[in-house]
Amino acid sequence: MENARALYHQHHGGAPEFIVRAPGRVNIIGEHTDYNQGFVLPMAISAATYLAVGPRSDERIDAVAADLGRQGVITLNDCDWDLSEPWLDYITGVAKELSAMNYPLSGANIVITSTLPIAAGLSSSASLEMAALKMFEAMGDFRLEDDEAAHLGQRVENDFIGVNSGIMDQFVIRAAREGHALFLDCRGLEIEHVPVAFQDAMFVVTHTGVERGLADSGYNERVAECREASEYLARVLERESATSLREFTVAELEAQRETMPDPLYRRARHVLTENARTIEACNAMKNGDAETLGELMNASHASLRDDYEVTGPALDAMTDIARELPGCYGSRMTGAGFGGCAVSLAAKDGAQEFAESLMKAYKERTGNEGVTLLSEPAAGVSAVPC
Ligand code: GLA
Known about the structure:
Elements: H1 2-12, E1 18-29, E2 39-55, E3 60-65, E4 70-75, H2 89-100, E5 108-114, H3 124-140, H4 146-161, H5 168-175, E6 180-185, E7 190-195, E8 201-207, H6 219-236, H7 250-254, H8 264-286, H9 290-306, H10 313-324, E9 328-334, E10 341-347, H11 351-366, E11 371-374, E12 382-385
Helix pairs in contact: 2-3, 2-4, 3-4, 3-5, 4-5, 6-8, 8-9, 10-11
The structure holds alpha-D-galactopyranose.
């Protein structure tokens, strides 16, 4: 907060009127299930995007991305993409969507700074989208429902950025409660805030140091494969009304094992078994049962590695090493995969040592420099007056 305030002063002079804080997120379990209308269990983390805002009387957004050393301008009544400043697209996308919904938009001087690593699978882009939305809401004195807000962010990703992502990231960044994970049914968008209250365990997030970009990774390919798998099952099981993998049971899928083409069968098996694991994990969390949750996290990683094929050598090494260390209940990749972060459930007492040993052994085994983020579950996006 202090840093955002100081940066605002340095770039625009004076003090900002308010600062928006939008957290990143880590997904505990329920991976690649959201765009299949399934279940997810993410939590917001303390690393966040900060947007220091001073309203202007015209329709101009004068933006500074302090960490990138870049500047850009958006003209709100006629906003267009700025190909030379891709970070600005997330704000432009939000402005375009709001204006299509006829919400009033006001100009502002802004400075963006972040403690979230970019392209690490911790949703820095969804965080910036939800921060921009909160800024426009605060200045225009309106408020979207949480599901509308999350859908808006998803449209920015799908229609403007070109990533066919689901709704998980924006939803948890918008709606999370401190001390809680968020169980979300991505079909009806029913939510439950689940307390994260283990006696002796906490989540440790570790970045492999391997960046990934969603648009050019296999992400959209997986989305397309799942659609194909669901269409295949709907056809052979004569269930025309079924439009997503969520509509099928593991038993129905298993009956197609011999005939369903590869890799569609394996992609579907990941999604359906992951949905079941996510419900079990939610119950384990409610019971404070770290052992069971850890086992489910391990099983999730194996399924993402073998059936969904989105892990890669760095994430496999990181999670293998984590499981060998004392005090580890379980470990898995988190987010889209293809690089990025792992999340481990580790004994609270030794969490710092666990993280340090993990970084050291990971460096020895892969040559990569990892980064650790220890975080309790944080609150969703908010605007704080200065
Ligand atoms: C990315 C997407 C999410 C979700 C995850 C995988 O974070 O933005 O919608 O699909 O990958 O679970």
